[in-house]
Design goal:
Elements (H helix, E strand, L loop, with lengths): L7 E5 L2 H8 L5 E4 L2 E2 H13 L3 E5 L3 E2 L5 H11 L3 E4 L2 H9 L3 E7 L3 H14 L3 E5 L4 H11 L3 E4 L5 H9 L4 E4 L7
InterPro entries: Aldolase_TIM, GlpP
Function: Regulates expression of the glpD operon. In the presence of glycerol 3-phosphate (G3P) causes antitermination of transcription of glpD at the inverted repeat of the leader region to enhance its transcription. Binds and stabilizes glpD leader mRNA.
Pfam family, one: G3P_antiterm
C-alpha cells in the first residue's frame, strides 16, 4: 500500500468511534488506545468490512512492544500496519514486510534532529509528525528524509487539515469524528 485513498485517516480512541468508522468510506483506520484482549475481535470485524487496521503498538494495553509482541500483532491479530515512536519496532515491522509508520513528536530542535536520524536509518513507509499543525516542519521532515509525511495531533479544524495537506502531508490522522466527513 503506497498511498492513502483518503487524505483523512480516522484515529480511534473508543468503541463508539470504531462503529462510526466502519460505516464510513474510509479504507484505513488507526487504533490508538486499545486493550490486547479486544484487539483480535476489532481487527476481524474491521477486516470483514474491508477496512485496513493500523495499530499504534506503543499504546496497546497488555502488549510489550518487543519482537514477540510485534510478531503477535502480525501473525495472530493480522494487523495491516504498525505505528510506533520506537525505531526498533519500525525495523521489526519492516522485517515482517508490514506497513510501518514512525511517529515523530516535534518537541524541540534537538528532538526533531534525533528523530530524523532514526527515520533515515529505519526507513519507515511514512512518518507521522505530531503536532500536525506546523506546516514548516512537515515540509522539513519530508525534505530531509524523502519519506511521505502524515500530520497528526492537535488537528482541530478543516483549516488545520487543509494547511497540513498544502504543506505536503500525504494524509492527516485525527480522532475528531466531525473531521472524518
Amino acid at each position: 500500500m503506497g498511498d492513502f485513498n483518503s487524505k483523512i485517516v480516522p484515529a480511534l480512541r473508543n468503541n463508539k468511534d470504531f462503529e462510526r468508522m466502519l460505516e464510513s468510506d474510509h479504507e484505513i483506520l488507526v487504533l490508538l488506545e486499545t486493550r490486547l484482549s479486544q484487539l483480535s475481535g476489532l481487527v476481524k470485524y474491521a477486516h470483514q468490512r474491508e477496512k485496513k487496521v493500523f495499530i499504534h503498538a506503543d499504546l496497546v494495553q497488555g502488549l510489550k512492544a518487543d519482537e514477540y509482541g510485534i510478531e503477535f500483532l502480525i501473525n495472530n491479530i493480522k494487523v495491516d500496519g504498525i505505528i510506533s515512536t520506537r525505531g526498533n519496532v519500525i525495523t521489526l515491522a519492516k522485517k515482517h514486510r508490514i506497513f510501518a509508520i514512525q511517529r515523530l513528536f516535534v518537541l524541540d530542535s534537538h528532538a526533531l534532529e534525533h528523530n530524523l536520524k532514526i527515520c533515515n536509518r529505519v526507513q519507515p513507509d511514512y512518518i507521522e509528525v505530531l503536532p500536525g499543525i506546523i506546516p514548516k516542519i512537515i515540509k522539513e521532515v519530508y525534505k530531509k528524509t524523502g519519506i511521505p509525511v502524515i500530520a497528526g495531533g492537535l488537528i482541530r479544524s478543516k483549516q488545520d487539515i487543509d494547511d497540513a495537506l498544502e504543506s505536503g502531508a500525504a494524509a492527516v490522522t485525527t480522532s475528531n469524528y466531525e473531521l472524518w466527513k
